[in-house]
Amino acid sequence: QVQLVESGGGLVQAGGSLRLSCAASRSIFSIKAMGWYRQAPGKQRELVATLTSGSTTNYADSVKGRFTISRDNAKNTVYLQMNSLKPEDTAVYYCNAVLVSGRDDYLYWGQGTQVTVSS
Fold it and tell me: Using an 8 Å Cβ cutoff, are 89 and 115 in contact?
């Protein structure tokens, strides 16, 4: 199991930047994948970015070139650097971890952090 705690959300003007952090309660070195998802009011939760244990990254088309996912294994923390923010990036951002046990994958979620981008 793992507990995830997000931080770094807030209110920012369009064009600004924020860095979200996701602190894990255990080593993230061997976690299969970690990622960021977001959910805007009235919309479904959507993938923002993922990072595998092999350092493969994947980004939603809407954030490519603006957002960067990274990790610090020594701090058991995953980051999401968000630049050139747009009002449509406004959402609750959730950290996610995929752990493997046997042949099964188990998903864990943080509580979310609000990001609001004003125009």
Answer: yes
Cβ–Cβ < 8 Å for 67, 14: no
What helix, strand, coil percent values describe the chain, rounded to 5?
Answer: 5, 55, 40
Helix (H, G, I), strand (E, B) or coil at 50: strand
Neighbours of 119 (CB within 10 A): 9
Round to whole Å and give the CA distance between 116 and 86: 9
**β-bridge mates for residue 96, sequence order:** 35, 109
Gap between the Cα atoms of 50 and 59, Å rounded = 7
Cα–Cα distance between 8 and 32 in angstroms, integer? 24
Neighbours of 28 (CB within 10 A): 23
Give tens-digit pLDDT for 71-99.
999 999 999 999 999 999 999 999 999 99
